[in-house]
Design brief:
With 154 residues, the chain is of the alpha+beta class. Helix content is 50%, strand content 16%. α1 packs antiparallel against α2 and α3 crosses α4. It is extended and about 60 Å long.
Length: 154
């Protein structure tokens, strides 16, 4: 029997609570029109260290804390990143073999580094957006059909 463990563990209840509190506190700083903010980090000895942070990074941090505050695991991927097939499969929430089939059918561009396939993060996200749009269109058509047939979905 194989037991799969998530590559990114879910946050603990304590981390969720701390993330919620931190996200609320930091989001108040986003109301400012300044391009940078200064936050303070306190080390384990109690010494405070001021850190200047661009507001764009602070927004990202608030988004990360919001997700953790909802109990979600979070990964930050640079826009220009090249993903392994497993990482790309994780982003799309599909199996690696299924992703490889997509690559081989040409539905998602890739290149090889030696014998390993690499997929650009923007290409993965473009595919995800395209598939999500197709799914939403199909769901809308099903809902319309259900309403037309008076199946109780009014």
């Amino acid at each position: 029997m194989t037991i799969l463990t998530p590559t990114r563990p879910l946050p603990t209840a304590e981390e969720v609570a701390i993330a919620r509190e931190g996200g609320r506190a930091l989001s108040a700083c986003l109301q400012s029109l300044a391009e940078t903010q200064q936050i303070e980090i306190v080390d384990d000895r109690g010494a405070a260290h001021p850190v200047r942070v661009p507001v764009s990074a602070l927004r990202l941090l608030v988004d990360v804390l919001t997700e953790i505050g909802e109990g979600n695991a979070v990964s930050v991927v640079p826009i220009h990143a090249e993903l392994t097939t497993q990482d790309a499969a994780d982003v799309l929430n599909v199996s690696r073999p299924f992703l490889v089939q997509l690559l081989e059918r040409g539905e998602l561009p890739f290149h090889k580094v030696g014998t390993h396939r690499r997929v650009r993060y923007p290409d993965v996200m473009a595919y995800k957006e395209r598939i999500d749009a197709e799914r939403n269109k199909a769901l809308d058509a099903l809902a319309a059909q259900g309403q037309a047939l008076k199946m109780g979905y009014e």
